[in-house]
Amino acid sequence: MSLTGNNVAVLSIGMSCQTSHQIREHASLLREVTGDPSLKVKALPFDWLISQPTSTLSILQSVKRFPDLDELAMRQGKPYWPRHNVYFWHAFKNDEQQFDIPGTYNMVRETMLMRWERFSNAVIGRRLILVMSNTQNDLDGHCRAAGTMSSIFQMSKLNSIAREIRQILAPSAEIVVVSRRDRMLADEEPRGIKLFYHQPDSSRWEGDNAQWAETLTAACSPALAIPTKTEHLFPVALNNERSDLEASGAVPVPA
Q: What is the pLDDT of residues 85-96, one digit of tens each?
């Protein structure tokens, strides 16, 4: 999950579920260290996806926020959007908790578009902290099975991606990267990135709470500069997409 408040937003931008889980687990801590008691847990677009940094940037650069039905496929047992190399790890499940893309498509689409509306609101007029990680223990296995992505971060690519994300969202956006030394190709020094290395832990996928608490405290303590409000938003056509969906009679589901 992610956190949004009156003055601060702490948002997951991938690469996997651990980022969202740890932000949610440390909601109380983040209210304290950011000085924003209004922070609330919210579901946003990159929560619970498998989306490597290049995929996250690709989606942010695109006007299209959600795939058409015929753009989705099942790959290694998970719903997959080839255009952006993104896996919807927990979405498109029916009442029996089985993946059913056609049967659940309209409901998932409505949910995701609502989350994009929240995202577009969250990145305006507040301190914006964007967190990505590749520390999830089972990530190597998922990447090998999928065959379309890597659990290794490359710093030169992250520097470029961080620069592009700031141009799209907000020049003052703070990019936090949580990694391990065995999962980082450190071919450059980080530029405009708050980089934290974790030690391997014994969790299945959740991550080590103590290490994450230290990281989030250091990364999210109040900055000296106060972000200025910007009307600069990424291209998006949410209103038209939602109107089309409502006209189709699709039933929304809770986000």
A: 999 988 899 998
